[in-house]
């Protein structure tokens, strides 16, 4: 069975800113079940800068995961549109991450990379198999069509929050994103990822800053004025203290004067059984 057909059948089975205003307690859905699953099955690495996932544990908890996915799928577009921006962002990020875990479980443990779920002509992110907001969408639809749509959120930190089940990706957070804490959670995700020297670092030998390929693929997202920043160099400058140890180098990074290179991306599955 080809990957697109398999995903379609699977779908049938499933049938930022501090100035954000306060909203009612009913704004959004209860993401506590997702937090409970994450706390059981996410393993923190390198002092919390990265994580691995116990997919075997998620498989054992598949009924609880499916129940949470059903809760997400039950939200109507009208209800979603009535929520505040933080609640909508948290919902979409959690949906992306939870449905990605579900996608991995369709082939786990016989899987070395999420890219193995694709084919020669289609990536695993393009098939529309996810019942969400009254339609059937793909992972690409959630990330690129909803979270990254110009003028909707314009927050580059979503790239540190959505997890593509790969070693090179920013960590799957050990708790759900929530409307009440979203800004702080996104900021911590950015700090954690930029502080991870395996994926972002100063290369003294080459005299340049070497960062994740994410900043190459989505560099424009970091130039749209979030917190007044309009360049990738300016954005990375916010994290100079975690990107380098030498005070002089930090000064160059902070001033946006460092040459920037991009590291290869590791698409290996972020499975805890690999370690």
Automatic annotation (TrEMBL):
Coiled coil: none annotated. InterPro entries: DUF547. Keywords: Signal. Residues 1-24 form the signal peptide. Pfam families: DUF547. Residues 82-194 form the DUF547 domain. This is DUF547 domain-containing protein.
